[in-house]
Amino acid sequence: MDPGSQLIRLAVFGKPIAQSLSPRIHGLFAQQLGLKVDYRAIEAGPKSFPRLVTELAKSGACGCNITAPLKRDAWKLAARCSASSSRAEAANTLVFFDTGEWYADNTDGRGLVHDLESLAGFSFSGANICLLGAGGAAAGVLAALMQAGPANIVIANRTASRADELAERHADLGPISSCTPAQVASWAPYELVINATSLGHGGTAPELSSSWFATGGMCYDMNYGPAANPLEQLCAQKGISYCDGLGMLVAQAALSFELWTGQVPQVADVLHQLRQAAG
């Protein structure tokens, strides 16, 4: 049978989920590769997620994506986990096998690195990096960032103990430090500052100083869309080079799509279409 004639059933779970770009992104991947994909957005909370994802798996679906607040729940449900998922203690991708076994992966970090290297032209080699935030978003990308070869990563978080714990969990991967936002300047200058906080969803941005940045340094916001506006505006006011997280979203989705289908979508083409549609 022609692989392109088989319907591939997929979904994304989260709450809220109506605003998710994932159905659009995976639809574009399917068009690009000549595949038939039914990718749905399903709203679920921690209580309803196990039942809903089990129903999806039993319906013959290949897998699903998971977003906030369910990534840790998804990781716990899987029988097998990738190293990146285990390190993050969270999964953004589940693969369902015919045996009934579920495999968990976390493609966020590799998606971020791909976006920075391939699309933004950033070189990790020898770079000094500051990661703002120590929650799930930061945990999901830290291992991939360290494996990319920077000289040092500094995790800055308002609750110092969370930054300390995250740094300790990744200390075997290379030089890493932790601090509070008030201490960020102590390790400056940085070639890259990454915003892994959720402040943008509340209409605010983390405080930045242009003095933190090395010549040619940039700020990368893991947020995209309206949640990215506050930090983008702040960086414009301070003359700091800025990049939002839409490219990361597409790149991590492509890695998930490859896990499910064995085919590799072209990230740049889909990202271009999304940016054009956004105006």
Question: Short summary of the structure?
Answer:
The protein is built from ten helices and twelve strands. The protein has 279 residues and is α/β, with parallel strands linked by helices.
Order of secondary-structure elements: EHEHEHEHEEHEHEHEEEHEHH
Largest sheet: 6 strands, mixed
In what order do the strands lie side by side in the largest sheet? 2-1-3-5-6-4
| Terminal residue distance | 40 Å
Computed structural class: alpha/beta
Q: What is the percentage of strand-forming residues?
A: 15-25%
CATH class category of the largest domain? Alpha Beta
Q: What is the number of strand segments?
A: 12
**What is the third-level CATH name, the topology of the largest domain?**
Rossmann fold
Percentage of residues in helical conformation: 25-40%
Q: Which oligomeric form is depicted?
A: single chain
Uncertain parts: none
Please, could you describe this protein's structure?
It is a single chain. This protein is α/β, with parallel strands linked by helices and 279 residues long. It folds into two domains: 3-106 and 252-278, Leucine Dehydrogenase, chain A, domain 1 (Rossmann fold, 3-Layer(aba) Sandwich), CATH 3.40.50; 109-244, Rossmann fold (3-Layer(aba) Sandwich), CATH 3.40.50. Helix content is 38%, strand content 22%. The chain has ten helices and twelve strands. The protein has helices at 22-33, 49-58, 71-77, 83-88, 108-119, 136-147, 160-169, 229-238, 246-261, 267-278; strands spanning 7-14, 36-43, 63-66, 80-81, 93-96, 102-105, 128-132, 152-156, 176-179, 190-195, 213-221, 241-243. The strands form two sheets. Strands 2-1-3-5-6-4 form a six-stranded mixed beta sheet, sandwiched between helices. Strand 1 (7-14), helix 1 and strand 2 form a beta-alpha-beta unit. The longest helix is centred in the last third of the chain and has 16 residues, at 246-261. The radius of gyration is 19 Å and the shape is globular. The N and C termini lie far apart (40 Å).
